[in-house]
Amino acid sequence: MTHLIPMPTFDLRSFYENEWIEHCRVAENTSNMLFKAFAEWVEISAYAIQHGKKILFFGNGGSASDAQHLAAELTVRYKTNRKALAALALTTDTSILTAIGNDLGFENLFSRQIEALAYEGDVAIGISTSGKSPNVLNGFLEARKRGLVTVGLTGGDSGDFPGHVDILLTVPSPIVARIQEMHIALGQMFCGALEYRLGLV
């Protein structure tokens, strides 16, 4: 006869409350530390858009979803209906992604697209919770080679992003979930601030 092994009691209330406590702590620290870099990100992006340039987002996994989300906010709308802003996520075309991965290697996923699509003065925004994603770092290398402004969103110890980006936003937490939460918060603030900075709302 099979005996069921008692499972340890899971205190869902404590888990729920502790997650919120940790989220709020990281959010406060992020707010206190990143305004200068955030302001630079908004200003350089506004300048690019005003001069007919575009914004490119890229990342892997959850960061790929953030890239698509933020590109959509700019291309379509954020707060209100207004003119479209030139933004593109390099994470959406399955034919391009699979061809690059198969023929050139996954590490070239974003650098190849930047080579094809980007021009001097565009803004390349790479998102990686660890700051160590080879394809994101290679994307930055290609972007800099072509005269783009590079912006990195990462967390923890910043990984290998320092030295590869012009503007660095590092969420002060080693926990992936908290970093991702701050990335999308910062990203949506960026979209809203850019609309105001461009006089669109």
SSE diagram, text form:
Elements: H1 12-50, E1 55-59, H2 62-75, E2 87-89, H3 94-103, H4 111-117, E3 123-127, H5 134-145, E4 149-155, E5 167-171, H6 176-197
Parallel strand pairs: 1-2, 1-3, 3-4, 4-5
Helix pairs in contact: 1-6, 2-6, 4-5
What does this structure look like?
α1 runs parallel beside α6, α2 packs parallel to α6 and α4 runs parallel beside α5. α2 links the parallel β1 and β2. This protein has 6 helices and 5 strands, in the order αβαβααβαββα. It is α/β, with parallel strands linked by helices and 201 residues long. It has one domain: 3-Layer(aba) Sandwich (Rossmann fold), CATH 3.40.50.10490. The mean pLDDT is 96. A 5-stranded parallel beta sheet has the order 2-1-3-4-5, with helices on both faces.
Brief sketch in words of this structure:
This protein has 201 residues and is α/β, with parallel strands linked by helices. It contains six helices and five strands; from the N terminus they run αβαβααβαββα.
